[in-house]
Amino acid sequence: MLTRRFLRVKAFKILFSHVYSDNDSLVHAEKELSLSLEKTYDLYHFLFSAIIAVADYAEERIETGLKKFKPTEKELNPNRKLINNKLVALIRAHKPLQQYCTERGLNWRNYPETVRTLYQNMIERPYYKNYMELETDSFEEDFRLVSNFFKHEFEDVEKVEYLIEEMSAYWNNDIGFALSSIIQTLKTFKPEQQKTAALLPMFYAKEDREFALELLRRSMMHFKDYGQMSQQFVQNWESDRIAYIDMALIVMGIAEAVYFSNIPVKVTINEYVEISKYYSTRNSHVFVNGVLDKIIQHLLQEGKIKKTGRGLIQETINKKIKT
Prior knowledge:
67% of the residues lie in helices and 0% in strands. The chain is an all-alpha fold.
């Protein structure tokens, strides 16, 4: 689930907050990074279970209508397409999802007003109205309804945003990532499946967690040295005018290039350039790209960056020849 780019972003945020708050505790930074990653995985499960909470709320409304002394015709003959949705049923019966949410205390019943808001917003959407008017009954239609729910119902919803901020400070910028992971997971659910669909693992590879922690360690340990090194390659730019974010990204790029021998330097540079587009100023990606490229070429020439693995050794040789 947690991609390498996402892990870089998480490590960058912890690095930035620690370095520029003069908190040089490496142990604290590592614990905070681990907690941040776990919280993102919590968010994935919590949001995944939202469709169950909304379907439960819809069923409660139907039951309330039927219990009225004088129910309307519509209340006597409710449309049950949502609560009979086959994909919702599969998600509801997903024991690993339910178990994880129970163990981590992730329960939408604690937030009835937010569930109500999600439901009310959904029933006004064209995709929902079209679904409820369909006379046919297919898994494809059910899938489309659930997929649209996750694509649309968490956009700019004030109560949802407030709830997310209230539950965890680590969730503020993770909603989009968690939702895209949920939509990816939905595609693995099949009608009448004999085996429970697998949720995404926290890490795609067992070494990914250590990659994030080691990247943070190396960046913090060498922040001062790599920062000073960067000044040598910055022309016509006063050191105190370099954005703190840019400097943190450049330091991380150097640390990754030096200490991760199995990652091509081209990948490293591209990753931090892309991250700078989202977290720094408009032209930062040009600055980060230029400075990182110069520094890495210099370190390659000095033999301080050594790559191993198929294709990477030749890349190193080509870089040296080029310089």
